[in-house]
Amino acid sequence: NALQAGEAVQKFKLEKEMELRFEVEPRQPLLLELLCGFAEVFGTELTRNKRYRFDTGAKAAVFTWHGCELQLTGRADVSYTARETPMLFYLNVHAALEQMRRTASRGDEDRGPRAMVVGPTDVGKSTLVRLLCGYAARLGRRVTLVEMDVGQGAVSPPGTLAMLSVERPADVEEGFSLQAPLVYHFGSTTPGSNIKLYNKVVSRLADVFNRRCELNRRAAVSGCIINTTGWVRGAGYHALIHAATAFEVDVIIVLDQERLFTELRRDLPHFVNIVLLPKSGGVAARSKEFRRESRDDAIRQYFYGFRGAFFPHAFDLRFTDVKIYKIGAPAIPASCLPLGMSQEENQLKVVPITPGRDLVHHVLSVSMANGPQDNVVEANVAGFVVVTAVDSDRGLLTVLSPAPRPLPQTLLLVMDIRFVDLK
Ligand code: ADP
């Protein structure tokens, strides 16, 4: 954590309901310290006199309800304080959800609130989800975070949907602890690449969550908070309606887009409470490039751990030891489809793949399904490997894996997503 002597130190005094926003420069970590008062980062309370490190590319805000003094050490790309924040609106949403949890825990309702956060990209959806989960955890609730953002998910690598029971607020530096999220394979970073599969997996998550609620009263009372992708038009919009219906959501928070708010009000039953809230002025727009890099970082972190704390394993697998599939056959002209089969069924087809050079760098999900006769599409995954080499002559493929050989299962699902392991 040590920084070079002579690094810039900046002090900030914040009055109540103000926040300090900063962006971290490349290759220049920034240290944040709370000197006095109380402050939080996206719903997680800071410990006084502890130095929190923020790495390259991080964009964050430290908010205080009561006033505080902060210190930044290092050179920030941007750092400024702001008085205008939507935090009071967000706190009110939390209070309303908590009220619903209380009603449920008294037995007046059979379950707590199911909330979904929607809006275009870069409006602070993931941040609000983290905040709401954090506030609920601080009150001892066990909210289920449902991650439907297959591009920039907070609890599992890109190309997946996941569900996590949130026991404590996210770590200030690391985010949510990745212990035991329930993860499902999707295979690409945008729902549009196979919308049929996307909706199918969402329905599956809703079923699993419902079952969890039947077995676990605390989970049922605490409810869920669903994060979504920024794709809100066309099939993306219909995917939101589908998710709202599958999860039987009670509350939808629309960030920053009135049109989306109006459409949802028009298309969903009136008992769904839909609120339109502003985005924070601090939310930074992220370039395509930046998104790609953060996806890469997320995959690297899966294999190497947070800040490189793990050592992944490399080993060979014989082609005959594993079965590799892809979900979704390439679209074929309608006239060529077998009689009685629709293009949509094609999207859920489990297609065997013969390993070849073109598999190199692809991420593969290790499915919990035992064989193609199982329901592969709806099976959760045990983990991931990335293919680093294919030797067709010897019938071997080399993989990078977080755990040593053997793989827990042998059915692998190919992602469109590639990861080049540069170490
Ligand atoms: P979305 O999920 O809508 O795409 P995010 O919640 O991921 O948006 O936010 C985009 C970026 O903005 C993230 O890097 C996040 O850390 C940052 N951010 C969010 N709120 C603030 C804020 N108040 N001040 C500074 N940065 C913020």
UniProtKB/TrEMBL annotation:
Catalytic function, reaction form: a 5'-end dephospho-ribonucleoside-RNA + ATP = a 5'-end 5'-phospho-ribonucleoside-RNA + ADP + H(+); a 5'-end dephospho-2'-deoxyribonucleoside-DNA + ATP = a 5'-end 5'-phospho-2'-deoxyribonucleoside-DNA + ADP + H(+)
Lineage: Eukaryota, Metazoa, Chordata, Craniata, Vertebrata
General function of this protein: Polynucleotide kinase that can phosphorylate the 5'-hydroxyl groups of double-stranded RNA (dsRNA), single-stranded RNA (ssRNA), double stranded DNA (dsDNA) and double-stranded DNA:RNA hybrids. dsRNA is phosphorylated more efficiently than dsDNA, and the RNA component of a DNA:RNA hybrid is phosphorylated more efficiently than the DNA component. Appears to have roles in both tRNA splicing and mRNA 3'-end formation. Component of the tRNA splicing endonuclease complex.
Entry-linked InterPro entries: Clp1, Clp1/Grc3, Clp1_C, Clp1_C_sf, Clp1_N, Clp1_N_sf, CLP1_P, P-loop_NTPase
Domain Clp1 P-loop: 119-305
Enzyme Commission numbers on file: 2.7.1.78
Main location: nucleus
Broad EC category: transferase
Gene Ontology MF: a single term: ATP-dependent polydeoxyribonucleotide 5'-hydroxyl-kinase activity
Record GO biological process: brain development; mRNA 3'-end processing; RISC complex assembly; spinal cord motor neuron differentiation; tRNA splicing, via endonucleolytic cleavage and ligation
Intracellular or extracellular location(s): Nucleus
Clp1 N-terminal domain: residues covered: 13-104
Matches recorded under Gene3D superfamilies: Clp1, DNA binding domain, P-loop containing nucleotide triphosphate hydrolases, Pre-mRNA cleavage complex subunit Clp1, C-terminal domain
The keyword Cell inner membrane belongs to this UniProt entry's keyword annotation: no
Protein family: Belongs to the Clp1 family. Clp1 subfamily.
Keyword field: ATP-binding, Kinase, mRNA processing, Nucleotide-binding, Nucleus, Transferase, tRNA processing
Assembly notes: Component of the tRNA splicing endonuclease complex. Component of pre-mRNA cleavage complex II (CF-II).
Superkingdom: Eukaryota
Clp1 C-terminal domain ranges (all copies): 311-421
GO cellular component: mRNA cleavage factor complex; tRNA-intron endonuclease complex
PANTHER family with a match to the protein in the record: CLEAVAGE/POLYADENYLATION FACTOR IA SUBUNIT CLP1P, POLYRIBONUCLEOTIDE 5'-HYDROXYL-KINASE CLP1
Record: residues binding ATP: 19, 59, 122-127
Protein name from the UniProt record: Polyribonucleotide 5'-hydroxyl-kinase Clp1
Pfam family, one: Clp1
